[in-house]
Amino acid sequence: MSRLMHVSSGPYAPPEPVRVLTATSADGAGLHVEVHGPEDAPAVVLAHGWTCSTAFWAAQIRDLAADHRVIAYDQRGHGRSPASPACTVDGLADDLEAVLKATLAPGEKAVIAGHSMGGMTVMASATRPAFREHAAAVLLCSTGSSRLVAESTVVPLRPGRLRTWLTRNILGARAPLGPVTPVARRILKYATMGPGSAPHMVDACARIVHACPRKVRHAWSNVLDLLDLDHGVRELRVPTVVVVGTADRLTPPVHARALVAALPNCVDSTELPGLGHMTPVEAPDLVTARIRDLVTTYATIKEGA
Fold first, then answer.
1. Rounded CA gap, 14 and 17, in Å?
2. Distance from CA of residue 30 to its chain's centroid?
């Protein structure tokens, strides 16, 4: 499991959950799940991205938990969820299904928000029975459904085979990231955040990303390299909002625009000027507001509450 190196104070310090549980996925993998806020409040489920953890959603959890039941989980191998040799797109969907079954009552609806690989998890789950039973609406942040390496602009070259090859090798590097140093922060900011990102935002993201074990980072990079979830986008029929930063190098706006064009029920999309890939950290209030709007418009409190 990862070393946990989260910030200890401020808006990006992870809040204490009301309860913690382990959801068991289809292959027996255990998933660390946290529940925040009142048990009888409308439900929100948060799925983080590649190399991140529940700590990535700290700002959203802190705000939403005042009047929502916020469910956040660590993707397998990330945060407090043990590593698993089964790193697959189907595994992502299995894991989200397991979390939904473990935390929501039969028929209970929730707004599901996914960032980056978390958004891909949502797309991979679009046809799953548990997802269709429980998803009231979806927020997709800084994500894409295919051609992730080919479209990435982390390497500042013209599109083509050389850029794709270099990007694949950089993102899939097996080398440890090491301690969070000033140089490490600059590298992470360039690759994943907008040029105007505040130092405390960069530090929070660096601590989270550097805590991800290198073997886990490498294994999931191979999955993302081969990702093709275009069919999942077309099956995602619940009301969906798409958010992306215009300076996102990992999943540039071309992905968000393709999602908007393909989604059967896209109710809103926003391109945030100058923001990078880490939109829930870079624009915490806006992302939280989008989730709140979806809950107000589409989600219902569970029966008997």
1. 9
2. 18
Amino acid at 133: E
> Residues 137, 111: contact at Cβ < 8 Å?
yes
Q: What token pair was written down for 176?
A: 């440890």
Residue 69 corresponds to which tokens in the numbers above? 């039941």
The rounded distance, in Å, linking the Cα atoms of 54 and 61 is 9
Length of the chain: 305
> Which run of H or E residues covers position 141?
strand 135-141
- The whole-model pTM stands at 0.95
pLDDT tens readout for residues 193-237: 999 999 999 999 999 999 999 999 999 999 999 999 999 999 999
Cβ neighbours, 10 Å, residue 284: 19
Distance of CA 239 to the CA centre of its chain: 18
- Nearest partner of 149 among 91, 78, 222, judged by Cα: 222
Residue 165 to residue 197: CA distance in whole angstroms: 28
Q: Are the CB atoms for 208 and 52 separated by under 8 Å?
A: yes
Going by C-alpha positions, the residue among 24, 46, 207, 210 that lies closest to residue 117 is: 46
DSSP letter assigned to residue 55:
G
Helices (H) and strands (E) in the chain, counts: 13, 8
